[in-house]
Amino acid sequence: MCGLVLQQDIFRKSAEIGYWIGEPFWGKGIATEAVRLLCQMGFEKLGLVRIYAGVFPINVASMRVLEKAGFQFESIAKKALIKREVIYDDYIYRMTIEEWESSKKKV
Fold first, then answer.
1. Residue 34 to residues 18, 65, 67, 68, 98: CA-CA distances in angstroms?
2. pLDDT class for 107, splitting at 50, 70, 90?
3. Domain residue spans in the chain?
4. Where is the N-acetyltransferase domain (predicted)?
5. pLDDT at 104
6. CATH code linked to domain 2-106
């Protein structure tokens, strides 16, 4: 499952990307390919200029998915997430339209 959450108002040219894949399918490149396809749709069809994702610091596999898809690490939002009553930092990754265009040239 994957999708883009389009932002509104002054953020309307941005979207948050999210994805989930069942454990039997981990390590097969499926999530990375889904992220790439969503970015293509976002930039080329929806006119976005920025796509971003927040990742729990313990989810190294998700960070790797984003990095393989061409995302750049942007920042850490300290103590921004809570899951099962544990507070975590939020690791923010992003891809801009310029980075997307540049990554297409490398393929």
1. 10, 10, 13, 12, 20
2. low
3. 2-106
4. 1-98
5. 73
6. 3.40.630.30
